[in-house]
Description:
The structure is a homodimer. Chain A has 5 helices and 22 strands.
Amino acid sequence: xxxxxxxxxxxxxxxxxxxxxxxxxxxxxxxxxxxxxxxxxxxxxxxxxxxxxxxxxxxxxxxxxxxxxxxxxxxxxxxxxxxxxxxxxxxxxxxxxxxxxxxxxxxxxxxxxxxxxxxxxxxxxxxxxxxxxxxxxxxxxxxxxxxxxxxxxxxxxxxxxxxxxxxxxxxxxxxxxxxxxxxxxxxxxxxxxxxxxxxxxxxxxxxxxxxxxxxxxxxxxxxxxxxxxxxxxxxxxxxxxxxxxxxxxxxxxxxxxxxxxxxxxxxxxxxxxxxxxxxxxxxxxxxxxxxxxxxxxxxxxxxxxxxxxxxxxxxxxxxxxxxxxxxxxxxxxxxxxxxxxxxxxxxxxxxxxxxxxxxxxxxxxxxxxxxxxx
Amino acid sequence: xxxxxxxxxxxxxxxxxxxxxxxxxxxxxxxxxxxxxxxxxxxxxxxxxxxxxxxxxxxxxxxxxxxxxxxxxxxxxxxxxxxxxxxxxxxxxxxxxxxxxxxxxxxxxxxxxxxxxxxxxxxxxxxxxxxxxxxxxxxxxxxxxxxxxxxxxxxxxxxxxxxxxxxxxxxxxxxxxxxxxxxxxxxxxxxxxxxxxxxxxxxxxxxxxxxxxxxxxxxxxxxxxxxxxxxxxxxxxxxxxxxxxxxxxxxxxxxxxxxxxxxxxxxxxxxxxxxxxxxxxxxxxxxxxxxxxxxxxxxxxxxxxxxxxxxxxxxxxxxxxxxxxxxxxxxxxxxxxxxxxxxxxxxxxxxxxxxxxxxxxxxxxxxxxxxxxx
Lengths: 374, 374
């Protein structure tokens, strides 16, 4: 078995893409031990941390397909090659000498909300919290591609990480591509710092890609090589994985940008087990964050027992970072259901009922929070 | 409803202690939505991080009963009172002027391994990874208790955190006690730094207790007050919670020190979904860490297909920090089962079959890792 960045030795099926266990279909059955193992490894952001514009270290969501690599930064090199005028090989010290940018970016896992789908695609069983916002610092990808010189017949750029394993029966290193036009955007960054500190191991140390506006799978961690290619990349994580499909046989469409979404800080205090919320009567500030990879968030409405009210929006902090919203509420005794719904400048808005798809991707259903006021 | 540190208004039952949902018994049934929500909130340490002596930020396990508080450190105060000669109230700046110590400590959740029990106590469904090691810096608790002057009839010290909510039907702030003799140990620390940096929010910012050798529930986070008391504390998290019980009606015994345990870095690479390991034939260094709250680890054995071999032990880095072990292995093609088993100087060793108890506490069964060599 070879874990290098080879093309698949077997043709994976759509089911394999989803679960890595051939034949396992979306299910209405109980959560499996394998899903629990994934939930224990991959962590999400407790929703009370929506209070913070920047997600503190260790609370940003993390999804790792295989193991977290532990590379030696002193011997680590990034290779840039393929359809370029000159191949490059750069150590971390060289990258630090290149011009740097810092961009605030909200990243969300494409599979966020998967466990809420019915039937449930069997994979990482996210609930609602697979999100986080950080300031990423590093070299613009466009700058390095300019140094290398992209040849005219290039169509995509392939990014390969050091993380290796087996998925859907296919030995692989994690790899994803971007179209040339996306790769040359000025805000796409090869990041070596997160919130001003060295990348933590689980976020791609010593170097990762960050693609603002796209779901997290595009932002390849533990980056080893960048290959400019003349035909579309067909590696496992590009297809069959990360596609919107209606059935296993549907070729589907690729998952790309983050759909508009808002989440709320659950008010009051929780019950340990049920996470149901308890609140005293009186004034309370409902607040949360909203984001979209398709265009700026233009409105957030808050639903209180089915009545929608417009929330106040704070100034945006960046094109692809979440935007704070708030609405004062006077809580009266009884049972209440709160909700929030964002709309972006393209007119896209969050659905009230979830849109099902075979891999459980791009879920952005309205969040609902049950509150007991007493 | 009052969420201050009151005594319970209702008498909680043992079932309520366990699950916060009266009447929910240990089960052989499927994982519940409530357990999945807890797994999504509370994160554990991916086992490959056992390579590191110090767990990197964000990878140390975290269990939060309620929400992560977000206190304003500038107005935050620690109150020390009760059976003392003089009550104290200290801001964070005052605490920074007191003498500081730094201690390396392995913390493990008392419920680690709970999801592996059969029947399964229904609560936070840890698999194996609820552990981590950090260097904690702060003021020795004994120093501050000395300043306050403990009165002769004092028997325990009660620690109350800012985290509030409902568990087992009981509104509460998280609170736990220590016997006086434990509270006066020289290595028990009121920590304001973790690995040299300010405490992250999820680890108790701005101040927490760290009790080396005890399961994590003793190390109260977001510390607000310390009360020296003249009779044993009976708050919810002291009893009925965190006790070794055989049935719901058994008064049980309190959970205190960490039972001897070892864990292994799973060798090779994983399958994404099953986490099964794949390895090439040839030499590989098996390694991991071992710890005990009862006394130093004195031996680790590695099981290879049922044959136990003694591992090499590195020097210990502290009385209550894990100790690295390693054993070279030549992997031959086929299916193998690897295991590790630690023993401490008290003679305690890890069981080959798990010891069941009603709350799923203190699990330290031998870890087994299935590996395909090909």
